[in-house]
């Protein structure tokens, strides 16, 4: 289809704005619709960055960038690619949480997303076709908005997380923005604030659950597979009751990925390996404690467990290294309301003289002496000074990752963790944090956010059009992030810096594509060529 006139200027995938040449303006019937001076992409970038600089807050900056995104994807991504480190916290987490909470009130543009309602399922096929037009979709990020970061149920407003995750795919790994589709499944919301808000743009009813909900998800997956057979399907921020069920249902059938379970598992494993590279301790000696054993917490535990088994431990032996703490305290095999994902990691009360007292994190840390403590609890400030000091009293280099997002929900601040442990803690956080200066050492804080890994993983899998996303490919991604940070430098980070996100995303993509070839999950033979062929760059 050829677009001309205003249709062309209003198409963000094709629009070049003031960079349309005189000749293009003539052939595309846009003469007179733009100021006469023809700009280069670099000039547009300079102008946009100048504007960006005038915006006073991260939220205002994000709104400006979204306008640019809505107008002209090439310009947006060229600008983003030149300022990845600065823009990540603005475009993505934590600022994205503000726009999700206010989505209906801020609404200006649907941003080429597909809005699929549980109440209009007969329209689902048309909706997907309308949203894509003549574009060939290779990547979908879908959410139902029930478990947005740690801020809970935001219903249809969660669509912003689908849009935001896709932005990072392109900025970090060069996924062609024309080939992506953000999707929200609107099954209702249990968020009273939204249900009582006349301006809320989603369905004004409680969440549909059970068979009807799963039939809705099923219908979407089947239609999307049918319409876009080469697609990589990324699930994001589903609720704890559904996320793992959905992954387990589809992972052996189609090329699909759950970011909160698998992406977070990969980046946390990579962070732990990075930390052990600094402390020179042995992986299989570690005692792992998860605080908040939900979608992410249990997903991470499973990934670390699998890695211990790969290191040669038997499953029975590996299991002894894990302790999960959730609302009920340390999880035992007889604890009530265990999720299926928690069950494999529960302990027996007979292991402890005071089992009945282990109902909170502090008691659990005292009883277990973990060497690794990972927070995915959504409970801010719960890694207290006394808990951290207790942990540090029993291990030389405690590995402590407060991963709950956004910033206001983090279990602890990196600075405090370093202060309380006299610089011994090996820390990574979910959100970006500035380096901490202490006792003449600059401690660089790694960001254990799945954004450091899902773009490369997805690009690698998409480039070779893998049949499935295997454990081998996932494991490869986790091991691809080593060797970038110098572990001998004082205050070294446990993970590579976000400023190099585009570089190491390629390392991850190569490893993953190569692994898919080795596992015969693709007919492609040359991983490098496949990645070069699919990779998009922002240029006219
Ligand atoms: N850094 C990352 O890449 C990353 C990735 C995924 C999730 N996260 C963060 O992890 C957090 C959890 O996300 P999720 O998707 O697993 O949510 P979830 O709702 O599935 O899990 C949260 C878990 O915390 C438990 N919990 C709640 N209050 C608690 C308390 N007082 N004590 C102990 N446990 C408690 C809940 O029972 C639940 O099991 C969020 O803040 C999210 O932003 C970070
Ligand atoms: O979105 C993020 O920043 C990471 C993660 O997927 C989360 O849910 O917190
Ligand atoms: Mn998430």
UniProtKB/TrEMBL annotation:
EC top class named in words: lyase
Any one GO molecular-function label of the UniProt entry: malolactic enzyme activity
Keyword Membrane: no
Listed name of the protein: Malolactic enzyme
Organism per entry: Companilactobacillus keshanensis
Protein family (similarity comment): Belongs to the malic enzymes family.
Domain Malic enzyme N-terminal: start-end pairs: 69-251
Keywords: Lyase, Metal-binding, NAD
